[in-house]
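User: Structure with DP6, tokens only please.
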Amino acid sequence: MLKATAVASPNIALIKYWGNRDATLRLPSNGSISMTLGGLTTETSVTFNADFQRDEFFLNGEPIFGDALNRVSNHLDYIRRLAGIDTSAIVESRNNFPIGVGIASSASGFSALTVAASAAAGLDLSQQELSRLSRLGSGSACRSIYGGYVEWHRGEGDEDSFATPLAKANHWNLVDIIVVIHKEHKATGSTQGHLLAETSPLQDPRVEDADRRLDVCRSAILSKDFHRLATVVEQDSNMMHAVMMTSSPPLLYIRPETIAVMKKITDLRSKGLEVCYTIDAGPNVHCICTPSFEQEVTSEFSNLQGVIDIIRAIPGPDASIIEVEATDPQE
Ligand code: DP6
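Assistant:
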């Protein structure tokens, strides 16, 4: 039997995924674009062994049960089906970044799990296939298969909804300064949130305009036009939060301190600093800036009241296998 270990990084969406056409298959309502966050990693080992009675999942050394274990186990089922095996597995996963700080660990978690589990099951899959499979575990995970700047195509169905690389990590050295305002576990996670998206009267117009935002974002990245990028990234984030706030029941992730940081960023940009904000399903703010302004942005927010941590990331690498070992040399 094989044990395989993979490493993957989370990503920050510049054009957001919010809402599914098919929640089970995680077929998104719109395409999305992200930057993979290098320096932040999830390392996951998967061992299949016929002697194991059931799947087990350890996160940062702690055994995990209930819904989170079932989600991992269901994901392993996709890989077992492909490999034609029915063996149970032990999954050991470690994040080098704290949970609940506005960095989606499901993206790096499910991409690392997909890469490790498919190698441990003896499959040799393309990155496209790994991206498609990762999507079934967590939508945003399909983007974490690739480093740098990445686009997830909405696709027509299960077969063609996957991510492709847009530009390599060294194409544009943007920096993500994550301003952490709150670390509490959020009441409504993304999976639940996606289900509410269609209850908002603003979701249809948001989705209808998505191709335009994707075009602007894609070309701003390719031409390294910070000003165009900043405008569309902030607009897209605000549109997603407008949908969240107008869902039934409404989802309000942003806090007063979030607004204070957003306003400060708008101020700084009007003074000529290349920085913009984007906010996921939580109160923390991702400040995307060019390296020349990193220092100024960081010191601005380290002194702001209500800020409890600052985490930095730069465009990172593809998800990859770091080790494959035979656990039973007789076989
Ligand atoms: C706001 O990928 O975490 O971060 O598919 O249920 O795992 P699941 O949802 P997830 O949703 C991410 C939502 C977002 C925007 C984004 O990353 O595109």
